[in-house]
Amino acid sequence: MKMKNYLKIVIGAIFIGGIMAFFFYHDIKKEVIAISNPEKSVYVFQVGVFKSLENAQKFVQNYPSGEIYQDKDIYRIIIAATITNKEKLEIHFKNNEIEYFVKEFSLTKDLDKIKEYDELLSKTDKTEVINSINKSSVALFLRLVT
Fold it and tell me: Do residues 68 and 56 touch, judged by C-beta distance below 8 A?
């Protein structure tokens, strides 16, 4: 009789341990996947969309940080790309009466350089410096998506 009770306890412990291990593994697996392949959001500020490259080239001249991004059969004018300074750029563009559309891109590529530009951007309020940083971050963003 003692052997049956002992066997029931061992089987019960294995069963309960198996259930706990399943849920623990399930949670850890999600975290490992998230860590190994994280998507990072890049916010891109767009000021125009054109079907004609010539029209896009004329329009982009109005924006010191503007670059043309070909997206299939259309041309988008991008004036900024950021990971952490979305609100700051929104305020900056609104204060300068620039109408824009924010588009979010999810990338898995290394965005350390854009983070460096973001750090510089967070430390300045000078329009010329912001335009220069935006020009560099947009150029880098375009290299990452093409």
Answer: yes
